[in-house]
C-alpha cells in the first residue's frame, strides 16, 4: 500500500502540535493544506487517525499506534536526506576515470594533486589503458579522449594542453651512422620503432607541412604494444636502435638533454589536445 510521505508528515505535525493551526505555525504550512493531507491519509488507510473538536485535536488509538511507529521512521528519512544534502554542499564520493596512458603520463600529473587538495572528500581511481573501451560500460564516470575518439553523445570538456605535437627522435649516434632524414619518405630507409594498439593496428606515421599531409608505411626491428612497454621504444631509440615516434611532451626531456635529436621537426603534426 503506497502512502504519500507528505501526508504522513502532515499527520505527525498536527498530532504533535495538537491542532491544525498550531501545526501550520510550526511547519510553515497552511492549516487547510494540513487538514486536507490528514483527510487524504485517513481515506487512504480507511481509519480515523485524529479526533477533532472545535478546540483541540487528539490522536485516536489507531493514530497513537501510527505515531509511535512513524517517529523513528521519519527521523531515519530525515537522516537519509541529510546524507544526500551533503553531496550538494561539496563534491564527495568516488570518481573513476578511464584514460589513455599518454594522458595518465602527460596530462594528469599536473591536474590530480591540486584537484585532490581542493576536494579532499573525492576518492579518485584512474584506469589507464589504450583499448578505448566504452567509458560507462567499463564502470567509469568519465574518461579522457582525443577528438577522433569522442562519442557523439558525450559532454566533452577540454582538459590539459589545447594543442600537442607528434614528434620523432633518434640518438645522435644513430643519425650519424644512418643519415638524417630530410623528407618523410626518407624514413623508408631507416629503422623505425613502432607501437601497436591493443586492437592490433600499428600507430600511423603521419606528417604535415604547408598543408601537405603524408603517411609513410615504415618498417623496423622493434614493435611494442602501446601501454606499459611504450618506454621500451624510447630506451631503444636512446640506445641507437632506431627512430621513435611519440608525443612531443613524452620525448621532450630526452630531446632537451641531447639523448635524442629531433627528426623531421618541420613535419611534426599538430593536433587538438584531450577532452574530459
What does this structure look like?
The strands form five sheets. Strands 6, 11, 12 and 13 form a four-stranded antiparallel beta sheet that branches. A three-stranded parallel beta sheet has the order 4-3-5. The protein has a two-stranded antiparallel sheet with strand order 1-2. It has 276 residues and is of the alpha/beta class. The chain has three domains: 84 residues, Orthogonal Bundle (Arc Repressor Mutant, subunit A), CATH 1.10.10; 57 residues, Periplasmic binding protein-like II (D-Maltodextrin-Binding Protein, domain 2, 3-Layer(aba) Sandwich), CATH 3.40.190; 109 residues, 3-Layer(aba) Sandwich (D-Maltodextrin-Binding Protein, domain 2), CATH 3.40.190. The mean pLDDT is 90. The protein has nine helices and 13 strands.
Topology, pairings included?
Elements: H1 5-17, H2 20-27, H3 31-45, E1 50-52, E2 57-59, H4 61-89, E3 93-99, H5 101-106, H6 108-118, E4 122-128, E5 142-143, E6 163-170, H7 172-178, E7 194-196, E8 205-209, E9 212-216, E10 223-225, H8 230-238, E11 244-247, H9 248-257, E12 261-262, E13 270-272
Parallel strand pairs: 3-4, 3-5, 7-10
Antiparallel strand pairs: 1-2, 6-11, 6-12, 6-13, 8-9
Amino acid at each position: 500500500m503506497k502512502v504519500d510521505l507528505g501526508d504522513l508528515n502532515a499527520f505527525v505535525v498536527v498530532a504533535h502540535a495538537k491542532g491544525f493551526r498550531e501545526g501550520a505555525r510550526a511547519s510553515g504550512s497552511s492549516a487547510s493544506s494540513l487538514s486536507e493531507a490528514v483527510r487524504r491519509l485517513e481515506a487512504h488507510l480507511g481509519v480515523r487517525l485524529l479526533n477533532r473538536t472545535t478546540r483541540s485535536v487528539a490522536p485516536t488509538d489507531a493514530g497513537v499506534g501510527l505515531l509511535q511507529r512513524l517517529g523513528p521512521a521519519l527521523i531515519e528519512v530525515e537522516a537519509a536526506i541529510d546524507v544526500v544534502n551533503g553531496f550538494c554542499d561539496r563534491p564527495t564520493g568516488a570518481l573513476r576515470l578511464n584514460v589513455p596512458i599518454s594522458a595518465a603520463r602527460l596530462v594528469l600529473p599536473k591536474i590530480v594533486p591540486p584537484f585532490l587538495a581542493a576536494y579532499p572528500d573525492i576518492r579518485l581511481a584512474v584506469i589507464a589503458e589504450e583499448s578505448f573501451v566504452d567509458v560507462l560500460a567499463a564502470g567509469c564516470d568519465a574518461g579522457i579522449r582525443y577528438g577522433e575518439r569522442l562519442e557523439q553523445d558525450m559532454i566533452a570538456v577540454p582538459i590539459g594542453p589545447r594543442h600537442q605535437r607528434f614528434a620523432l627522435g633518434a640518438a645522435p649516434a644513430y643519425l650519424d651512422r644512418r643519415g638524417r632524414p630530410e623528407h618523410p619518405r626518407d624514413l623508408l630507409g631507416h629503422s623505425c620503432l613502432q607501437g601497436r594498439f591493443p586492437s592490433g593496428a600499428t600507430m600511423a606515421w603521419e606528417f604535415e607541412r604547408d598543408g601537405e599531409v603524408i603517411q609513410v608505411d615504415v618498417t623496423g626491428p622493434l614493435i611494442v604494444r602501446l601501454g606499459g612497454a611504450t618506454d621500451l621504444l624510447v630506451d631503444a631509440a636512446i640506445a641507437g636502435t632506431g627512430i621513435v615516434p611519440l608525443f612531443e611532451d613524452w620525448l621532450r626531456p630526452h630531446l632537451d638533454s641531447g639523448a635524442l635529436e629531433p627528426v623531421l621537426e618541420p613535419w611534426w603534426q599538430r593536433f587538438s589536445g584531450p577532452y574530459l
